[in-house]
Prior knowledge:
The protein is an alpha/beta fold and 251 residues long. It has helices at residues 23-30, 56-66, 71-74, 140-152, 189-204, 221-241; strands spanning 6-12, 34-35, 43-47, 88-95, 101-104, 106-108, 133-135, 156-157, 166-167, 179-182, 210-216. The strands form 3 sheets. A 7-stranded mixed sheet has the order 2-3-1-4-11-5-10, with helices on both faces. Strands 6-7 form a two-stranded antiparallel ribbon. Helix 1 crosses helix 6 (221-241). The longest helix has 21 residues, at 221-241. The protein is globular, with a radius of gyration of 17 Å.
Amino acid sequence: MKRKSFTVAVTGFGPYREYDYNTSISVRDGLPSHIVRKNHPPIHILKYPHDINCIYTEVLSLVPQLWSGQPSVFEPGSASTKPLEIDLMIHIGMHPDDDGWFLEKRARRGKYEQPGDDGKMLARDALRGHPEKLFVDFDVEDLATKVREMVNVSPSLSTNETMPTVETKNSNKDDDTIVKTSYDAGLYFCELISFLSLSVLEKRQEFGRVVFLHVPKKRDEESIARGIKVAIALITVCVDSLPGNYGKSQN
């Protein structure tokens, strides 16, 4: 049966360590609420309204809520009782050491040896019983290739009046947006949230429809616009790559 629409959830992290900002917030907030394309079902984007703190206990308790299907998680005060069906989860975080955009292929159980922003470490048994590593079920190399093609083919990416045009100033080949894949998300909160999200789906024996997008720390208008453009392209490419049945892993 042809899908009538898709729902994509997006999260971002708040300031952490020595940074008093986080570009993932700007990218998340700059996304449209809907993506409508000709001859494709519309995509509804649910932006988690809170900036996620780098505190282990908070992230451990948050991820199950994100997948709980409760509308109030994404829309505080919502009186709706209709469960949300999340077709795709995009977690976004800021990469402090690189200027490119990275799609993470896997997430590891540990060891998480750095303290959170509250000074506390991850509890020793917090991830007991979880697999050593979990992989995204999408072909991430294929996603990266398609995202690069979408982002770099034109200085603007737009669908119709329901989705704002995202403009970037430079469209020369030398200024192409760098979108790569990675096997190492850093064994900190970016990797942890990805691991926990994938773990929820692994326990349900569902397709691992989680992608972590690392964005650069540059926060000028041009860099944020490119990040939004990459995120929009990633969402559309992932939705187009979803299998017909999420009930079983496709690996």
